[in-house]
Amino acid sequence: MKFSDRYNFEEIPVVYGIKNTITNKWYIGSCLNFKDRMLRHRQNLSKNHHHSPKLQESWNLYGEDSFDIFILRRLDEKESVDSYIIENEYMNKFDSVNFGYNMIKATPLHGRFKLSEEAKLKAGKSRMRKVVCINRHTG
After folding, report:
1. How far apart are CA 111 and CA 95, in angstroms?
2. 117 has which bridge partners?
3. What pLDDT is recorded for position 107?
4. Predicted local confidence at residue 117, as pLDDT
5. Average pLDDT over residues 98-119
């Protein structure tokens, strides 16, 4: 699949991979809504604001058409709760932290933060750049 196929993507929980067809490097992720996640990846990459500087640099160098998207595993309800375990298995398989675009291994907290409506309003009014801090020991 290509990013241009994004409107045909399903809204399903998956572990997915984004592969650069020129360098054979991978970005591995998991999500509860594959379609939404791919739309956000493409939007962030197109605006030069992706959270993985390694993936962003490669996207800027090789362009959108150099990337293929794969559903590595569909997740059932039970698996989606601990998707980070399955995600880590694929990250190890493709060595996507050392020889790829992932920045850190997935953790139980990965992708689980939700802002309250009040926090969203405050963040929207802020003129400061948003920063994400990750504790190396706990993820």
Report:
1. 21
2. none
3. 63
4. 64
5. 69
